TrEMBL record:
Pfam families: Asp_Arg_Hydrox (PF05118). It comes from Hirondellea gigas. Belongs to the aspartyl/asparaginyl beta-hydroxylase family. The chain crosses the membrane at residues 36-55. GO terms for molecular function: dioxygenase activity. Keywords: Dioxygenase, Membrane, Oxidoreductase, Transmembrane, Transmembrane helix. This is Aspartate beta-hydroxylase domain-containing protein 1-like.
Amino acid sequence: MSFSNVLKNTVDMSIMKISDCCSSIIGMLPDPSLPFTQASIIGIFIASAVLIYLVQKDTKKPLSSVIILFFRQLFQTFPTDNKELDKVKYKELQEKITLRWESQKHRKYSDRLRHSINSYVNTTADNNNDESGALKQRAVVFHMEELSTMPWWNGYEVFTCEQDILRVSFPKVKLEFLKVFADFQKGVCKQWRKVELLNGHSCVYPLITNGVINTLNCSTCPATFKALSDSRVLGLSGCAFGSAAFKLLFPDTNYGPTNGETNIRIKCDMVLQTTTKSVLEVSGSQHAYSNEGQLLLYDDSHPHSISISNTKDATAVAAPLAMLTLDLWHPGLDLSEKSAIIKLFTS
């Protein structure tokens, strides 16, 4: 048999296979004679099955996990009331802390810590989520008694050492941020996490989350992790109230007002990249995110919000407000109180 005949037979067989494949797909499609509603439902079902298959093939995750992820993404666009879920989570955490406290309360603690813990373990989720205090200082989870209640901590000398360390580290921290941000812009987003906001868009590159170090992300940003270590970030102690991350906030974002989990920490935001007019408001007082390297320190148990002006400028949209955000111990706590809080609220 000549080469041309072999080639012709091969092409014919390929065409037949493609034809059979197309016929199979067409056979799966809804019958044109079906009513529109039934045809739409069948079509959506087939499209969903194909999408789930492609996601499972790409991610290599178990099929059950992919299906759960699919429906979670499908329904997360609809408004939901998470109050009941928040109550359940609060109750679970409260039960854990209560058990730990029962085994430790015989130890010698300061009166204010003892009163604060007793108040916490005896507070119901309903009282804790009471919105009547939305316009005043109100720690959502744990409130430590008799701590200074200043909303802003810029201008005070208590964090001089930490601020000096962050300022010196800024050039290296920014270079590491730009590296992971460049990957983000290219679509390499596996290590980034989307922050769910009602108005706007935000993502974080977590370095420490609730006292747990993200070893992969920190190994990618060694200079940043060293700056966090030298600054004695709360989360490095293993305390569940301590976190650190690179954070992106895009134009059109309006976040808050809201209250943080606790008053035992002071939030610190170091600006890495500016965008359109961006304002942080804490207890009615505003500070702008205006300069790279700028440090803003505040108590997030006070009502706080962030607003970023909207813009149609594509350049501004592609360059969101970026910061390194981290948690520091409240300077009013002594060493014994910090140690007790770590043991109770360990991650």
